[in-house]
Amino acid sequence: MPGGAGDVPAVRATPSVGIAAGAAWLAGLLALSWLGRYNGSPPTVFGVTLLATNHLPNWWDLAAIAAFSLVIYYWAVHSTLPHQRVSAAVEQVETEASVELEKSLV
Known about the structure:
It contains three helices and two strands, in the order αββαα. The protein is mostly helical. The protein has a domain at about 15-80. β1 (about 45) and β2 form a beta hairpin. The protein is elongated and about 65 Å long.
C-alpha cells in the first residue's frame, strides 16, 4: 500500500530538535529582555536581580523581538517531519490503538 509503514523507515521521535529549539528560544528571549528597556518589577533568580541594560532603544527592541521570532518560526517550520513520516506515524498509532481496543473487547 503506498504511503504505508513499509515504505518508510521506522518512526522514531526526535525530541532533541524540540529541546534545542526551546532552549534557543528561551536563551534568545532572555538575552533580548536583558538588552531591552523594560524594568517593571525586576525578578530575582538565585539571588541575582535581573535588570534590563537599556541597550536597545524604543522601537528597536520590538524590531529585534519580531526578527528573532521570525527566525525561530522559520526554524520550527523547516525542522518538521516530512509528510510521509507523519502519515506513517499516524498509521502506526492507529494500528496499535485498534489492536489494544480489540484485546480489551475480547
